[in-house]
C-alpha cells in the first residue's frame, strides 16, 4: 500500500458492549482538491449529524462500576491523591486518556451549582471545556432516603438547540444514596458555545410520591478565557489506498478534550466503508491515543465525508506523531440491502451466509413487531462487539419509508423493533455496519 501526498496491540480501554472505519491504483494529482472541495460544499448544504456509538444506559451502568476496578496512570493517581474530592470525577472518565490528562493539568472548571426537588438534589460540580466539547460533571443525591428507581429522562438547552447533547444515567438500586455522571455537549457547525449553558434536567422517579413534572434548572457559566487559543492544527492531506478503496485524511485539529480528523472516502469506491477497527495516533515513544469509544466517536459532513474523534494528546506535546491502522470494516456497495419476506419469514437478499432470519413479526410487550436476525461471527476482532447492524430507516415494497423504534442485540442475535403496520412485503433494510473487512498498512507521518 502506498501513500499519496497532496500537492500543495494498542491499549485502548473498553467499556463492555459498545456500539461506540485499503491494492495500489493510480491517483489523479488533483484528487485531494476535488475531495476536499466536496467536503466544503457538504458543510454548506447540510448541518452536521452527530452520532453516538454506544447505548446510553450501557455506558452509564459501566461508568458507575466499583472504584476498585479503576486503574489510573501513575501521574493521574498522584494528582488525584493530592485532591481526594477529585477522584470520583476521574473515575467517570478513566476510559479516556485525554480527559485524564486534562484533569491532571488543572483543566477542570469548578461550578458548584445545586437544585433540589422532591427529595432529589442535583449538583453541577464542574466541567472540562474547550472549543470542541464540554463535559459537565454532576452529582444526584437521594436526600430524604425514600426508596426509588431513577433515570435521567431529559437533558435540554431550551435556548440553544443547535448544541448536541450526549448523556446516560440509570439507577436500578432502590437504596441508592448518591450517583455521579457526565453530560457531553458539542457545538454547532460554527464551533461556538454560548457564555452560559442554560440547562434543564428531568429525572424520572418510579415512586408513589414522585413529582411528575419537576425540572432541575441551571445556568452554567463557561470561562472561555481558560481555553482560548488552545488548539493545534495539522494539514495532513494524504490519500491512501486499501484493497482498491481510496481514503483521504485532511485536516487534524487537536483540542484538549479530543482530536478531530477530517476523513473522506472516494465516491468511486466499490465498497461502503463503515469503521476502522484500529485507527490510532502513535508518538515516537509508542504511546497510543485511539478513537473515542465511549461517547460520540464521529460526525457526518456528507455521505462520503466525516470527522473522526480521538482521545487527545494535547498535553503530551509529542515530538513525532503517526496515524496508523490496518483493518477497516467494509462491504461491497451492491450488498448493502437486505430484503425480508414477512410472509415466508426468509431473506430474499443478503450480503453473505453469516446473516440469517430467525423470526419476523414476533411481538413484544409494548406492541412492537420484531425482526430477529442471527449473525454468525467468529472473528476475534469482533469479540465483545455489539453491532448496529441496520439503519433505523427502512422501506416496504410500495416504496413507503418507515423508522424503527429501537434495536437490541445479545450474543449472535440481533433484534430490530418496528411499528406494527400492514406492510407490503418484502421490507428493505440497509446495512449500517457489518463484520466484513479490508486490510492494509496505513502509516502516515503527521509530524
Supply the CATH class of the domain at 52-226.
Mainly Beta
Low-confidence stretches: 1-72, 75-84
How is the CATH topology of the domain at 52-226 named?
Immunoglobulin-like
Q: Supply the helix-strand structural class.
A: mainly beta
At the fourth level of CATH, the homologous superfamily of the domain at 52-226 is: Immunoglobulins
The CATH architecture of the domain at 52-226 can be named as Sandwich
Q: How are the strands ordered across the major sheet?
A: 1-12-13-14-19-18-2
The rounded distance between the terminal residues' Cα atoms is: 20 Å
β-strand percent reads 35-45%
**Percent of residues in helices:** 10-25%
Overview of this protein structure:
This protein has 447 residues and is mainly β. Among the domains are: 52-226, Sandwich (Immunoglobulin-like), CATH 2.60.40.10; 336-437. The chain has helices at 31-45, 56-63, 74-82, 87-92, 97-104, and strands spanning 3-5, 49-52, 108-117, 120-129, 134-142, 149-156, 164-167, 170-171, 178-186, 196-206, 216-221, 232-242, 245-254, 259-265, 271-276, 280-283, 288-290, 296-302, 305-310, 321-332, 337-341, 346-349, 355-363, 369-375, 390-395, 401-403, 406-410, 413-418, 427-431, 437-445. It has a seven-stranded antiparallel β-sheet with strand order 1-12-13-14-19-18-2, covered by helices on one side. It has a five-stranded antiparallel β-sheet with strand order 3-4-5-9-7. Strands 15, 16, 17, 20 and 30 form a five-stranded antiparallel β-sheet that branches. Strand 25 (390-395) and strand 26 form a beta hairpin. Helix 3 (74-82) packs across helix 5. The longest helix has 15 residues, at 31-45. It starts with a strand and ends with a strand. The model is unreliable at 1-72 and 75-84 (pLDDT under 50).
Amino acid at each position: 500500500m502506498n501513500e499519496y501526498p497532496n500537492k500543495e496491540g494498542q491499549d485502548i480501554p473498553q467499556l463492555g458492549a459498545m456500539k461506540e472505519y485499503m491494492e495500489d491504483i493510480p491517483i489523479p494529482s488533483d484528487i485531494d482538491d476535488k475531495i476536499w472541495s466536496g467536503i466544503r460544499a457538504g458543510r454548506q448544504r447540510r448541518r452536521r449529524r452527530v452520532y453516538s456509538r454506544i447505548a446510553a444506559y450501557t455506558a452509564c451502568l459501566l461508568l458507575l462500576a466499583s472504584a476498585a476496578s479503576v486503574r489510573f496512570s501513575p501521574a493521574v493517581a498522584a494528582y488525584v491523591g493530592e485532591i481526594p474530592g477529585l477522584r470520583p470525577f476521574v473515575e467517570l472518565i478513566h476510559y479516556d486518556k485525554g480527559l485524564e490528562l486534562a484533569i491532571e493539568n488543572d483543566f477542570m472548571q469548578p461550578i458548584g451549582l445545586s437544585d433540589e426537588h422532591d427529595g432529589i438534589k442535583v449538583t453541577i460540580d464542574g466541567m472540562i471545556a474547550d472549543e470542541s466539547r464540554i463535559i459537565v460533571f454532576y452529582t444526584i443525591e437521594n436526600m430524604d432516603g425514600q426508596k426509588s428507581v431513577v433515570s435521567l429522562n431529559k437533558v435540554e438547552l431550551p435556548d440553544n438547540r443547535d448544541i448536541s447533547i450526549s448523556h446516560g444515567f440509570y439507577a436500578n438500586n432502590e437504596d441508592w444514596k448518591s450517583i455521579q455522571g457526565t453530560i457531553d455537549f458539542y457545538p454547532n457547525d460554527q464551533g461556538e458555545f454560548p457564555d452560559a449553558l442554560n440547562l434543564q434536567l428531568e429525572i424520572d422517579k418510579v415512586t408513589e410520591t414522585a413529582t411528575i413534572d419537576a425540572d432541575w434548572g441551571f445556568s452554567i457559566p463557561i470561562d472561555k478565557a481558560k481555553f482560548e487559543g488552545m488548539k493545534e492544527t495539522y494539514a495532513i492531506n494524504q490519500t491512501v489506498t486499501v484493497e482498491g478503496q481510496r481514503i483521504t485524511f485532511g485536516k487534524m485539529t487537536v483540542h484538549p478534550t479530543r482530536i478531530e480528523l477530517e476523513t473522506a472516502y472516494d465516491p468511486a469506491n466499490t465498497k461502503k466503508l463503515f469503521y476502522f477497527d484500529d485507527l490510532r495516533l502513535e508518538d515516537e515513544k509508542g504511546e497510543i491515543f485511539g478513537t473515542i469509544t465511549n461517547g460520540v466517536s464521529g460526525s457526518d459532513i456528507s455521505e462520503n465525508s466525516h470527522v473522526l474523534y480521538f482521545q487527545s494528546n494535547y498535553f503530551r506535546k509529542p515530538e513525532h506523531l503517526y496515524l496508523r491502522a490496518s483493518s477497516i470494516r467494509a462491504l461491497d456497495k451492491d450488498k448493502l440491502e437486505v430484503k425480508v419476506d414477512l410472509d415466508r419469514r426468509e431473506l430474499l437478499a443478503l450480503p453473505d451466509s453469516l446473516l440469517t432470519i430467525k423470526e419476523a413479526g414476533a411481538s413484544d410487550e409494548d406492541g412492537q413487531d420484531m425482526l430477529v436476525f442471527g449473525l454468525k461471527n467468529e472473528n476475534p476482532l469482533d469479540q465483545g462487539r455489539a453491532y448496529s447492524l441496520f439503519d433505523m430507516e427502512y422501506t416496504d415494497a410500495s416504496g413507503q419509508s418507515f423508522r424503527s423504534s429501537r434495536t437490541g442485540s445479545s450474543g449472535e442475535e440481533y433484534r430490530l423493533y418496528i411499528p406494527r403496520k400492514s406492510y407490503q412485503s418484502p421490507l428493505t433494510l440497509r446495512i449500517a455496519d457489518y463484520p466484513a473487512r479490508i486490510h492494509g498498512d496505513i502509516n502516515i507521518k503527521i509530524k
